[in-house]
Design a protein that fits this description.
121 residues; globular; four-stranded antiparallel beta sheet; single chain; mainly beta
C-alpha cells in the first residue's frame, strides 16, 4: 500500500518558516510524482505544490508561489516542502500523496494523517 507519513508541522509566528517532510514506507517514492495538499478548517482540501519524479518540474498554487519550495531526496525516499514567510492563512493540515504526474489529478494510495501547521502570533 502506498502510504506516506507527513511530519514537521507545528506552531510558528507569521513570517516564520517550517520544513515539512513526506516519507514513504514500503514503496519507492522516487517512482512517483508527489503532490502537497492542505486543508484549512471549513475549507476543501487543495493541492498547493507538486514535484516530478526527476525533481526537474515543480509547480505551485498562486497562494504559495514564491514562498514555498518543494524538493526531493530520492536517496532518502523523502519529499520536502520548505515554507517561508508563513501567513495566518497558511494554517491547515498538510498532506502529501503520490501522483501519476504533476499534470494529472490521478492520485495513488490514500490520505495519511497529515501534519498540522498553525501560523499565529
Amino acid at each position: 500500500q502506498l502510504q506516506l507519513v507527513e511530519s514537521g508541522g507545528g506552531l510558528v509566528q507569521p513570517g516564520g518558516s517550517l520544513r515539512l517532510s513526506c516519507a514513504a514506507s514500503g514503496f519507492t517514492l522516487r517512482s512517483y510524482a508527489t503532490g502537497w495538499f492542505r486543508q484549512a478548517p471549513g475549507k476543501e482540501r487543495e493541492e498547493i505544490s507538486c514535484i516530478s519524479i526527476s525533481g526537474e518540474t515543480t509547480n505551485y498554487a498562486d497562494s504559495v508561489k514564491g514562498r514555498f519550495t518543494v524538493s526531493r531526496d530520492n536517496a532518502k525516499n523523502t519529499v520536502y516542502l520548505q515554507m517561508n514567510s508563513l501567513k495566518p492563512e497558511d494554517t491547515a493540515v498538510y498532506y502529501c500523496r503520490p501522483k501519476l504526474s504533476c499534470g494529472s489529478r490521478v492520485l495513488f494510495g490514500s490520505w495519511g494523517q497529515g501534519t498540522q501547521v498553525t501560523v499565529s502570533s
